[in-house]
Amino acid sequence: MREIKFRGIREKTGEWVYGYLVMREEPFLHDIVSPIGNQSSCTWAIKRGSEGQYTGQHDPTATEFCEGDIIKDHTDYWEVKFFDGAFWIVAIGGNAEPELLCGNDYMEIIGNRFENPELLKEEPTC
């Protein structure tokens, strides 16, 4: 069974934090709560829209795939998205159909939609 966790960019520092996602209506922010020990936790306000769920998979360097990651296989570039109850990879700058995210020993993370939006505009050159 896959570990359920999220990541988000801290509102104050811009760094990534990992833990459970808490969505608030007021003041229209989301939080990431990370457990510390058995009885305490730390809560960080994150930038709304930066939240992404861990997919349960990773690249060959053991870096975890999360929603919003941009990955490269042998020839194509893809964005990791969650829809229809599953994690998919959606082609960037091409006409390929979305594919279920699986069998990733040949895929590597080259960035994410939040820190590297330029990678979404057209096929990246890496």
**Spatial order of the strands forming the largest sheet:** 4-3-2-1-5-6
Uncertain runs are none
Radius of gyration, whole Å: 15 Å
Shape summary: globular
Helical content band: under 10%
Largest sheet: 6 strands, antiparallel
Report, as a whole number of angstroms, the end-to-end distance. Answer: 34 Å
Q: What would you call the structural class? A: mainly beta
DSSP summary, beta strand count: 11
Provide a count of the helices: 0
Strand content: over 45%
The whole-number mean of residue pLDDT values reads 83
What is the string of helix and strand elements? EEEEEEEEEEE
What do you see in this structure?
The protein has 126 residues and is mainly beta. The chain is built from no helices and eleven strands. It is globular and about 45 Å long. The model has no long low-confidence stretch (mean pLDDT 83).
How is this structure best summarized?
A hairpin with a 5-residue loop joins strand 5 and strand 6.
Give the SSE map.
Layout: E1 6-9, E2 16-23, E3 30-36, E4 40-46, E5 52-58, E6 64-66, E7 69-72, E8 77-83, E9 86-91, E10 99-100, E11 108-112
